[in-house]
Amino acid sequence: MPELPEVETVRRDLKKNIIGKTINSVDIYYRNIIKNVSPIEFSYSLIGQTFEDIKRKGKYLIMLLTDVTLVSHLRMEGKYFLKKDEPVVKHEHIVFNFTDGTSLRYHDVRKFGTMNLFKTKNLKLIFQEEPLNKVASDPFDEDLTVEKIYEVFRKLSRPIKSTLLDQTIISGLGNIYVDEVCFLSGIHPSTSTKSLSIEQVALLLDNSRIVLKKAIALGGTTIKSFSSHEISGRFQNELLVHTKEFCPTCNQTIIKIRVGGRGTYLCEHCQKKFEG
Ligand SMILES: [Zn+2]
User: Which of 45, 139, 180, 191 has its CA 20 to 30 A from that of 35?
Assistant: First the structure.
C-alpha cells in the first residue's frame, strides 16, 4: 500500500504534470471507484475544469480544479499515468482526457481506490465530509502538537507501534516507517504507549518528521508495488532496521517479532522497553 511519502511523491509528480490542463471529457470504465456522486454527475462536473493545485491530507490526494475538488485515495495499488495517443489498457478505470491531447489515467489492479467529487473548493467544508472527516493530522501538520499527542498517548496501554499505526490518531505512518521511527527513538515497539514521557513523545514526533522527510526526498519505498510515471523509491536502500540483519549502531542481530499483528524489526540492545 502506498504510504504517506509515496502519496506525497505522487502529489508532487501530478502537480508538475497536470496543473493548467483542462478536462475535455472523462471516460469511466469501472464506476465503483467513484463514491459520492453518480458517474454521469462525475463526468459532467469535471468537463471544462482546469487543474489548479494538488494538496494532500494523510494519504488522500486533494485535486483543486476551477470550481470543484476531486479527492483520490490510491489504497492498495492505485497509480496515475499521463499518456498521449495510447490506447486505454486493462486496469485503467478512469481516464481524464485533456484539451491538449494528453490524458491522465487512473490505473488500479485491485480496484480498491476511491474518488470523491465535491462541488466546492472550500477545504474546511470538505474536511467535515466523508472520507476526510476521519483523517487525523500527519506529523507535518501544525495542529499536531506534542502536548495534544501526549494527552492521547497517556490513556493508551497498547504497544506504541500500534498507536503510531493508528490513522485516527496520527495519519501517514505505515509499518516500515514506524519501525524506523521506534529505532531512531531508542524505544522498543512493544512498549506500552502510556508509559512514555512527554520527552519521548516529542522524540517520536521529531523522528517521524525526519523519517518521512527523508522518504519523501527519496521518492518513498518500493518494497510493495508502487510507481507513478517512472518514479521508483530509493528509501528502501536507506532503511536502518526494517528488513535489516544487523543493527547499524551496535552491530547486534536485528530481531523480527510481531507487534499488534504486524511484522516488526528491532534491535533489542538499542531499543528499550518501558513499563507503565
Ligand atoms: Zn543496536
Answer: 139
User: From edge to edge, which strands make up the β-sheet containing 114-118?
Assistant: 51-57, 60-65, 69-73, 114-118
Per-residue CA distances from 226 to 2, 186, 190 (Å): 7, 30, 29
Residues with CB under 5 A from ligand 1 (ion): 247, 249-250, 252, 267, 269-270
- What would the CATH number be for the domain defined by 4-134? 3.20.190.10
- Report CA(13)–ligand 1 centroid distance (Å): 36
C-alpha of residue 170 to centroid of ligand 1, in Å: 27
H-helix or E-strand containing 71?
Answer: strand 69-73
Q: What is the pLDDT of residues 115-128, one digit of tens each?
A: 999 999 999 999 99
Name the nearest CA neighbour of 204 among 115, 271, 116, 104: 271
How far is ligand 1, taken at its centre, from the CA of residue 261, in Å? 23
Taking every pair of Cα atoms in the chain, the longest distance, rounded to a whole number of angstroms, is 62
Measure Cα distances from 4 to 256, 269, 274 in Å: 24, 29, 28
Q: Which CATH class is domain 146-266?
A: mainly alpha
What is the amino acid identity at position 174?
Answer: G
**pLDDT: is 142 or 207 the higher one?**
207
How do the domains of the chain map onto residue ranges? Answer: 4-134, 146-266
How confident is residue 230, by pLDDT bands cut at 50, 70 and 90? very low
Catalytic residues: 2-3, 59, 262
Equal fold, 4-134 vs 146-266:
no
Of the candidates 174, 23, 138, 6, the one whose C-alpha atom is nearest the C-alpha of residue 79 is 6
Tell whether the torsion through CA atoms of 50, 53, 54 and 57 is positive or negative.
negative
**Cell 496520527 identifies what position?**
170
Task: Decide which of 248 and 9 is more confident.
Answer: 248
